[in-house]
C-alpha cells in the first residue's frame, strides 16, 4: 500500500494532469460518434439481457444471458467459447472472447453475467422509466456488459480493433463465486498472465455528479472463533469454575474493537452462538444454542468478516488478534482461525496511472474528470483476482442506484457516456 500521506499527493498530481484537456483527434471523434449512433441499440441490448433472469444459481439463465452477449462478440470478430465448471460446483461457467495482435497493451476486459436475483426474487426484470430503467441486475452489471459491447463496436466500425490483443471474460458466478476459487477463477488468472492491463465494468459510482472509478478494493476474508469454558453452577462464576465461554468471547471481541484499529481495516462478528449446547451449520450460516441462566456456558462459536487493504495490513491485524485471543480469562480457552477469500486490489502507482488516462479521456470528450472511489467503499469484485498481477481499473460500468435490491435502476444516459470513456481509453491503450 502507498504511504498514507503520499497517496493524496500522487492522486492529485495524476488527476491534475488529466484535467488539462486536449481536443479529440479525428479518429477519436469517429469513435465517439459511433458510440452515440448506437445508443438506441445499446438500450435494446440491455433490455434483452435484463429480461432473462440470471441469478447465480439459475444456471440455464446465466447461460442464456451469455448467449446474448456471445452473439454480439461474434459479430465483432472475436473468437468466443463457453467454459464449463465442474458439475459439483453448481455454477454455470464463463463466457470468454479473444483476439490477438501486436499493437499496444494487451487488455483484459471483465464483466459478469449473473445477478443476485434468483428466480423467486421480487422486482421487475425490466421496466423503462424515461431515461432510466428498473430491473434485476440492470446496473450490476448487465449495463456494464453492454458498455463493453458498445465501446468495442465503435472501435470495430472505425477499423481500430485490427491487430490488437483483447481478451474478454464475463463470469457466471461473480455474485457468489464457486468453490474452490482456484478452479472458478483459474481461467481469469491465466488470461491476466497474458495481459498487461485489466479493466472491469462494474457499476460506476458518482459523487455530486462526478464519475468515479476504482483503483483499490479491500480483500474479503473472515475468521472463526471457537471458545470453551468450564461448565458449572452459576454461583461459582468468577471463582473456581472461572469466567465461562461467553465472558471470554466478550473479552476477545471487545479487545479487537479497542486495540486492532487501522484506517481501512474492519471486522464484523456476524454470527455468535453461546451456551452449553451449540450447533452451527456452516453451509447455511445458521445454528442453534441452548443453556440455562444458572449454568456457566461452556462453548461459544463466532463467525466473522474481515476486510483489509493489503497483505501487510492483514498480517499486522492477525498478529494482534492472535495475541488478544491468547490472554485467556481463568477457566477458558479459545482458538482463532483465519480464512482468506478475495485478495486485495491494492492502490498502486500503475492503477493510479490508469485512472489518470481514463480521466483524461473523459475530459477530452467533454465528460469531466473521473474521481477515485475510496477502497474501503467498495465490496468484493472479480478484478481482485487479477489486480495482484497487472495494472487494473474498475468501475467503468453504468451509473445507477439501488443495486442488489428490488428497486435497482440504471441511468440509460450513462451507457453512452461510459462507453465513450471506455472506447477512448481502449483505443489509447492499444496504440
TrEMBL record:
<dbReference type="Pfam" id="PF01546">
    <property type="entry name" value="Peptidase_M20"/>
</dbReference>
<keyword id="KW-0378">Hydrolase</keyword>
<dbReference type="InterPro" id="IPR001261">
    <property type="entry name" value="ArgE/DapE_CS"/>
</dbReference>
<keyword id="KW-0732">Signal</keyword>
<feature type="domain" description="Peptidase M20 dimerisation">
    <location>
        <begin position="215"/>
        <end position="331"/>
    </location>
</feature>
<dbReference type="InterPro" id="IPR036264">
    <property type="entry name" value="Bact_exopeptidase_dim_dom"/>
</dbReference>
<feature type="signal peptide">
    <location>
        <begin position="1"/>
        <end position="21"/>
    </location>
</feature>
<dbReference type="InterPro" id="IPR050072">
    <property type="entry name" value="Peptidase_M20A"/>
</dbReference>
<keyword id="KW-0479">Metal-binding</keyword>
<protein>
    <submittedName>
        <fullName>M20/M25/M40 family metallo-hydrolase</fullName>
    </submittedName>
</protein>
<dbReference type="Pfam" id="PF07687">
    <property type="entry name" value="M20_dimer"/>
</dbReference>
<keyword id="KW-0862">Zinc</keyword>
<dbReference type="InterPro" id="IPR002933">
    <property type="entry name" value="Peptidase_M20"/>
</dbReference>
<dbReference type="InterPro" id="IPR011650">
    <property type="entry name" value="Peptidase_M20_dimer"/>
</dbReference>
Amino acid at each position: 500500500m502507498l504511504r498514507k500521506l503520499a497517496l493524496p499527493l500522487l492522486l492529485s498530481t495524476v488527476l491534475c494532469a488529466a484535467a488539462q484537456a486536449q481536443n479529440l483527434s479525428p479518429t477519436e471523434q469517429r469513435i465517439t460518434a459511433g458510440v452515440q449512433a448506437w445508443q438506441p441499440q445499446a438500450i435494446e441490448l440491455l433490455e434483452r439481457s435484463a429480461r432473462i433472469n440470471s441469478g447465480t444459481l439459475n444456471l440455464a439463465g446465466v447461460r442464456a444471458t451469455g448467449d446474448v452477449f456471445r452473439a454480439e462478440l461474434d459479430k465483432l470478430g472475436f473468437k468466443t467459447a463457453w467454459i464449463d465448471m465442474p458439475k459439483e460446483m453448481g455454477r454455470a461457467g464463463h463466457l470468454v472472447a479473444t483476439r490477438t495482435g501486436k499493437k499496444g497493451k494487451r487488455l483484459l476486459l471483465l464483466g459478469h453475467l449473473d445477478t443476485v436475483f434468483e428466480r423467486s426474487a421480487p422486482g421487475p426484470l425490466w421496466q423503462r422509466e424515461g431515461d432510466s430503467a428498473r430491473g434485476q441486475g440492470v446496473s450490476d452489471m448487465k449495463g456494464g456488459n453492454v458498455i463493453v459491447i458498445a465501446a468495442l463496436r465503435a472501435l470495430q466500425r472505425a477499423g481500430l480493433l485490427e491487430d490488437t490483443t483483447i481478451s474478454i471474460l464475463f463470469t457466471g458466478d461473480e455474485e457468489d463465486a464457486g468453490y474452490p476459487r482456484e478452479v472458478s477463477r483459474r481461467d481469469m488468472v491465466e488470461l491476466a498472465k497474458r495481459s498487461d492491463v485489466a479493466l472491469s465494468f462494474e457499476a460506476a459510482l458518482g459523487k455530486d455528479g462526478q464519475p468515479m472509478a476504482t483503483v483499490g478494493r479491500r480483500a474479503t476474508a473472515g475468521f472463526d472463533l471457537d471458545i470453551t469454558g468450564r461448565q458449572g453452577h452459576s454461583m461459582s462464576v468468577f471463582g473456581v469454575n472461572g469466567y465461562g465461554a461467553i465472558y471470554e468471547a466478550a473479552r476477545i471481541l471487545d479487545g479487537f474493537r479497542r486495540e486492532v484499529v487501522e484506517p481501512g481495516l474492519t471486522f464484523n462478528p456476524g454470527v455468535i452462538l453461546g451456551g452449553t449446547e451449540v450447533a452451527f451449520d456452516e453451509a447455511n450460516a445458521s445454528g442453534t444454542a441452548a443453556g440455562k441462566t444458572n449454568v456457566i456456558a461452556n462453548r461459544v462459536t463466532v463467525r466473522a468478516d474481515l476486510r483489509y487493504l493489503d497483505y501487510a495490513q492483514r498480517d499486522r491485524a492477525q498478529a494482534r488478534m492472535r495475541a488478544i485471543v491468547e490472554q485467556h480469562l481463568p477457566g477458558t480457552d479459545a482458538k482463532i482461525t483465519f480464512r482468506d477469500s478475495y485478495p486485495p486490489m491494492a492502490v498502486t502507482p500503475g492503477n493510479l496511472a490508469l485512472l489518470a488516462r481514463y480521466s483524461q479521456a473523459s475530459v477530452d470528450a467533454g465528460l469531466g474528470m473521473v474521481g477515485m472511489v475510496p477502497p474501503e467503499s467498495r465490496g468484493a469484485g472479480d478484478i481482485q483476482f487479477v489486480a495482484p498481477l497487472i495494472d487494473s481499473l474498475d468501475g467503468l460500468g453504468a451509473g445507477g442506484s439501488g443495486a442488489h435490491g428490488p428497486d435497482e435502476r440504471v441511468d440509460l444516459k450513462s451507457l453512452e457516456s461510459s462507453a465513450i470513456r471506455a472506447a477512448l481509453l481502449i483505443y489509447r491503450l492499444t496504440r
